[in-house]
Amino acid sequence: MSRALVGNQKAINQVKGNNIYNRALGTPTIDLTPSDTTPPTFYSKNSSVCTARKQSLPAAGDRRDGHTMSPDPEYNEMNEKNPRPLDDDDIALLKTYGLGPYSTSIKKTEKEVKEMVKKINDLCGIQESDTGLVQPSQWDLVSDKKMMQEEQALMVARCTKIINPNTEDAKYIINIRHIAKFVVGLGDKVSPTDIEEGMRVGVDRNKYQIQIPLPPQIDPTVTMMTVEEKPDVTYNDVGGCRDQIEKMREVVELPMLHPEKFVKLGIDPPKGVLCYGPPGTGKTLLARAVANRTDACFIRVIGSELVQKYVGEGARMVRELFQMARTKKACIIFFDEVDAIGGARFEDGVGGDNEVQRTMLELINQLDGFDARGNIKVLMATNRPDTLDPALLRPGRLDRKVEFGLPDLEGRTQIFKIHTRAMNCERDIRFELLARLCPNTTGADIRSVCTEAGMYAIRARRKTVTEKDFLDAVNKVVKGYQKFSATPKYMVYN
User: Fold this and answer.
1) From the centroid of its chain, how far is CA 222?
2) Dihedral of CA 102/107/113/116: which sign?
3) How confident is the model at residue 471, as a pLDDT?
4) Which parts of this chain are annotated as the region Disordered (predicted)?
5) Distances (CA, A) of 141 to 72, 131, 132, 475
6) Is the pTM of this model over 0.85?
7) How far apart are CA 479 and CA 471, in angstroms?
8) For the stretch 103-138, what's the b/e string if a residue is b when 16 or more beta carbons lie within 10 angstroms of its beta carbon?
9) CA distance 132 to 139
């Protein structure tokens, strides 16, 4: 790699003298005659051209008597292919003679850049450090201690009642836990419209004035139940449930999209739906399709999540769940496997299920209690509706009961087409024939048949699934696993 160097006249003369020496070796030289426009160039001795200092010994072809022989071509070719890096002497020489006529301009520019950077840092003020602390020179411990003493931390209280609301002399009754109740006013930074009854507020420690409204305290476990992303399931992905889809849309979609129709008639829209049926018939799948269709907040709760170890924890979670739902513009709460907490009440003499019954009573109170439910729709799914408590099933709490039965021939054919939509299958597959060979099967069974047919194609090392693969899968899944099916057991119970 060539390095540019412009030196004084002494360096030029030295380079010229070395050029005479290099001519004796047969190595190329450079012309360092100064010109008006182009400054002389200095090269490293390890490149294809010579350098200002040449310390190597004469080549083997030179003679002691001053006569020269022809240069060795192998020696020159080796130097051109394998150039050596600059040594310490070359680096010292470069530093000695500087960077030529541009060195002054470069140093001046570098100095201006440093001054500009320093000026910018001064204007920025306190800089961010790796530890997150400012420089010790900027610490003011006395002022910080004084500020902490003057501005003490606020206390958390709850506003239980507002006296003389909508007036200038409004007062607020707050309840500070483990202390007492006080009648207080508002701070300078709080507006009367920001405070409501039952709200958590922050009060100072001197006069107990309300300084800031606080958001409702909700368990993080309850917050995590909210489905942030919409599911990718639509109504077209639910096969064999045409009547069930229409009933669900009447209860969920119609009141949210067209509430004026119910206002004109003077009736309240249904607010709760119970989906029941054998396992694998599409109850949870339809709930996911409802979440995809509506823009409302969708909260999915599994019944076993509300069964807690400590007394009152399950009821508290149900209460906070509906409290969080009321803060939304529109919300859908889906209780999956609700029979885990909604079983019929009985006295076993031991009291082991008392906590589950407390959770169910709180759920009943939230469905149709003293406080209005608001624009909250409740969906519940279960496989055993006969085990649910009658108080949970009464109208006003769960207005619709939608049964998800076994799909008929048309429904099974549609389910086959839905599950094979993304599969690489042959064109002439008779799905109606496959549906006839799968009587009394659910959508989950048909999906298992499609998966098993794909496994047969993989075992045969084929890229497409044939009709024979589906027939073999029907014999294996439907007939082989029939003794493990829960459908006959469900039909006996219901």
Assistant:
1) 18
2) negative
3) 92
4) 39-86
5) 79, 18, 17, 81
6) no
7) 11
8) eeeeeeeeeeeeeeeeeeeeeeeeeeeeeeeeeeee
9) 13
- The pLDDT value given to residue 95: 67
Q: Which long-range contacts (CB under 8 A, 24 or more apart) does 194-198 make?
A: 195/159, 195/162, 196/159, 196/162, 197/159, 197/160, 197/161, 197/162, 198/158, 198/159, 198/160
**Do 58 and 25 form a contact (C-beta atoms < 8 A)?**
yes
Per-residue pLDDT at 1? 41
3-class SS string, 121-141:
HHHHCCCCCCCCCCCHHHCCH
Q: One-letter amino acid identity for 70? A: S
Q: Where are the alpha helices (DSSP H) in 379-428?
A: 390-393, 409-419
pLDDT at 17 (0 to 100): 45
Q: What is the pLDDT of residue 112?
A: 93
Amino acid at site 330? A
Beta bridge partners of 175: 158, 181
Closest CA to 226 of 291, 274, 282: 291
**What is the spatial distance between Cα 422 and Cα 424, in angstroms, rounded to a whole number?**
7
Rounded CA-CA distance 30/22 in Å is 10
Q: Note the pLDDT tens digit of each residue in 427-462.
A: 888 999 999 988 888 888 899 999 999 999 999 999
**Under 8 Å between Cβ of 399 and 272:** yes
Burial class (CB in 10 A: 0-12, 13-18, 19+), 211: middle
Q: Output the pLDDT for position 63.
A: 46
pLDDT at res. 257? 81
Distance CA(214)–CA(174), nearest Å, equals 13
Cα(429)–Cα(435) distance, integer angstroms: 12
- pLDDT of amino acid 358: 83
Closest CA to 257 of 241, 247, 245, 269: 269
Buried b / exposed e over 293-302, threshold 16 CB at 10 Å, is bbebbbbbbe
Low-confidence stretches of the chain (pLDDT < 50) are: 1-13, 15-68, 492-494
Domains (ranges, CATH) in the chain? 150-213 (2.40.50.140), 222-345+355-403 (3.40.50.300), 409-481 (1.10.8.60)
Residue with tokens 């010292």: 92
Partners of 181 in the β-ladder: 175
Contact 43/53 with Cβ under 8 angstroms? no
**Is 158 in contact with 198 (CB distance < 8 Å)?**
yes
A 10 A CB-CB count for 203 gives 22
Give me the half-sphere count of Cα atoms (radius 13 Å) on the Cβ side of residue 256: 21
DSSP string, 105-124: HHHHHHHHHHHHHHHHHHHH
What is the rounded distance in angstroms from the CA atom of residue 463 to the CA atom of residue 458? 8
What sections of 215-353 are H helices per DSSP? 220-223, 242-248, 254-257, 259-265, 283-293, 313-326
